[in-house]
Design goal:
Length: 43
Amino acid sequence: MSVKVEMIYIKDDRILFTPYLKEYDITDYVQELTEELSKLKER
Protein backbone atom coordinates (compact mmCIF):
# COMPACT_ATOMS: atom_id res chain seq x y z
CA MET A 1 0.00 0.00 0.00
CA SER A 2 1.26 3.48 -0.73
CA VAL A 3 0.06 6.85 0.47
CA LYS A 4 0.94 10.23 -0.94
CA VAL A 5 1.93 12.40 1.99
CA GLU A 6 1.56 16.12 1.41
CA MET A 7 3.47 17.21 4.51
CA ILE A 8 5.01 15.96 7.77
CA TYR A 9 5.33 18.57 10.50
CA ILE A 10 5.42 19.20 14.25
CA LYS A 11 2.56 21.02 15.94
CA ASP A 12 2.10 21.38 19.70
CA ASP A 13 4.94 18.86 20.28
CA ARG A 14 3.18 16.23 18.15
CA ILE A 15 4.30 14.80 14.81
CA LEU A 16 1.59 15.11 12.19
CA PHE A 17 1.27 14.17 8.56
CA THR A 18 -1.31 15.08 5.96
CA PRO A 19 -2.16 12.55 3.28
CA TYR A 20 -5.08 13.57 1.09
CA LEU A 21 -5.56 16.82 3.05
CA LYS A 22 -6.48 15.02 6.29
CA GLU A 23 -4.35 15.47 9.39
CA TYR A 24 -3.14 12.44 11.38
CA ASP A 25 -1.15 12.39 14.62
CA ILE A 26 1.63 9.83 14.25
CA THR A 27 3.74 10.83 17.26
CA ASP A 28 3.17 7.60 19.19
CA TYR A 29 3.96 5.48 16.14
CA VAL A 30 7.17 7.38 15.46
CA GLN A 31 8.25 7.06 19.09
CA GLU A 32 7.57 3.31 19.05
CA LEU A 33 9.44 2.95 15.77
CA THR A 34 12.50 4.80 17.08
CA GLU A 35 12.51 2.66 20.24
CA GLU A 36 12.37 -0.55 18.19
CA LEU A 37 15.11 0.70 15.87
CA SER A 38 17.25 1.56 18.88
CA LYS A 39 16.82 -1.99 20.20
CA LEU A 40 17.91 -3.41 16.85
CA LYS A 41 20.93 -1.14 16.79
CA GLU A 42 22.05 -2.39 20.22
CA ARG A 43 22.21 -6.01 19.03
